Amino acid sequence: MRVEDFAGSPTGDVRRQPTGYSAFIPRTLPRSLSLAEETVNSLSEADRALGTLNGMGETLPNPHLLIVPFTRREAVLSSKIEGTQASLSELFQFEAGNETAGSPDVREVSNYVRAMEYGLQRLKELPISTRLVREVHEQLLWGVRGEHYTPGEFRTSQNWIGAPGCKLDEATFVPPPPSEMIPLLSDWEQFLNAGSRFPPLVECALMHYQFEVIHPFLDGNGRVGRLLVTLYLVARQHLCQPLLYLSAFFESHRDEYYEGLLSVSQRGDWGGWLRFFLRGVAEQSWDAVRRSRSILGLQDKYRRQLYDARASRSSIRLVDILFQSPVLTVPRAMSALGITYPSAAKALLNLAEAGVVEEISAGKRGRTFCARELVRKIEEGLGAD
Fold first, then answer.
1. pLDDT value at position 383?
2. Count of beta carbons in the 10 Å neighbourhood of residue 250
3. Pair (275, 242) in one structural domain
4. Residue 320, CB half-sphere, CA atoms under 13 Å: how many?
5. Which of 274, 271, 295, 278 is nearest to 373 (CA)?
6. Taking the mean position of all CA atoms in its chain, how far away is CA 192?
7. How many helices (H) and strands (E) does the chain have?
8. Same domain, 65 and 159
9. Are residues 278 and 325 in the same domain?
10. How far apart, in whole angstroms, are the C-alpha atoms of residue 306 and residue 62?
11. Residue 299: inside a domain
12. C-alpha dihedral (123, 109, 212, 128), degrees to nearest 10
């Protein structure tokens, strides 16, 4: 870490540690900031876009038609930022019960979904807090390759950020040591639960920055930090449904993202970071609105196809199930609809005849069907094959 790059920073200090390395110790989060006109304009646009998305979420008769595709898409993207390579199709196949699709990468992505769903449930009982963060982290890393990185526990040793495989003295950034980390986390929690005067999106941006700089876990910090953005907006009732995710924006502007975080640490450039974060909220909100309309339009198209084909009531009901599970087996359809195995098999075949799904399994045992058009709509922007 280039110590001279942090000289005179108003947001923290670089301190030499007893063992010889230097680490950045951020100051506690500011309780007031002067927002430039450009930042206020960015905030206004982000609020408008998020409000439109939230309004759409409030009118959905079945929010899970969008929540399930969106959370899976986010899981793939957020994990991709950390180097995990798994496709959305593989994740859906794994969730449908295809164990052969469960590579280590797919299992990590599946854990991200589990951590998100767990966190959303825990918000009914817990505020955004260090306890919630630890519990979500445990769900994220349990039983996968990061399992040896003490899931659910804050680190007790030094970590660092840099190129894969780099050593501490080669790091581009060294977060605070454990002795400095705990009081910073305590302040982070107080900041979020003491009644901030900041607009929610500004507070969310500050929360995300500080969490990433503290880097409280040995592994999984980036994924937990991105997941926290959505949890925060739901907890503050800025979103009625978890439909906004920023990983796509952070991934497509990766250098700008890391530079934005670093510029706060090195120069105290809160304005630059806030404008970047707010631009991400605006862009991803409008993208979610467009994607939502496209997915709901596809649902309507499928329904009309089946009505025109005089398909059974079970087949039409199965369309809604597809949007929660685009890859289906006969047993899964049977369970979801509460019907017999032969009826579920017939319903799936009706969907196949109507061009809604196609069989992706070989042979008649363990038959699996996929709504490929739906998966492609969800995958747009993922760089999927």
1. 52
2. 25
3. yes
4. 11
5. 295
6. 20
7. 15, 5
8. yes
9. no
10. 20
11. no
12. 0
* Residue pointed to by tokens 């999106």: 201
Instruction: Tell me the C-alpha distance between 332 and 369, whole Å.
Output: 11
Does residue 55 share a domain with residue 86?
yes
The CA-atom distances, in angstroms, between 253 and each of 247, 260, 265 are 10, 10, 19
In the numeric block, which tokens belong to residue 353? 């005849």
The model's pTM is 0.92
Distance CA 22, CA 62 (A): 52
Give domain status of residue 384, yes or no. Answer: no
Q: How many structural domains are present in the chain?
A: 2
Domain of residue 224, residue span = 3-290
Question: Is 75 domain-assigned?
Answer: yes
Which helix H or strand E contains 29, and what residues bound it? none
- Judge if 286 and 321 occupy the same domain: no
Residues 6+ apart with CB under 8 A from 225: 208, 211, 212
CB-CB contact of 62 with 248 (8 Å): no
In a domain, 272, yes or no: yes
Q: Digits of tens for pLDDT over the chain (385 positions)?
A: 899 999 999 999 999 999 999 999 999 999 999 999 999 999 999 999 999 999 999 988 888 888 989 999 999 999 988 888 888 888 998 988 877 767 889 999 999 999 999 999 999 999 999 999 999 999 999 988 766 789 999 999 999 999 888 999 899 999 999 999 999 999 999 999 987 789 999 999 999 999 999 999 999 999 999 999 999 999 999 999 999 999 999 999 999 999 999 999 999 999 999 999 999 999 999 999 999 999 999 999 999 888 888 888 899 999 989 988 999 999 999 999 999 999 999 999 999 998 999 998 865 567 889 999 999 888 876 654 3
The set of residues, in sequence order, having a beta carbon less than 8 Å from that of 15 and lying 6+ positions away, is 22, 23, 25
Please name the helix (run of DSSP H) or strand (run of DSSP E) that holds residue 383, with its range, or none: none
Neighbour order of strands in the sheet with 327-329 = 327-329, 368-370, 358-359
Six token digits for residue 137: 């982290």
Residue 81's nearest CA partner among 229, 224, 201 is 224
Q: Are 82 and 223 in contact (CB under 8 A)?
A: yes
User: What does the chain come to in residues?
Assistant: 385
Pick the closest to residue 223 from 208, 242, 210 (CA basis): 208
Same domain membership, residue 364 and residue 234? no
Helix axes 221-235, 64-81, angle to 10 degrees: 150
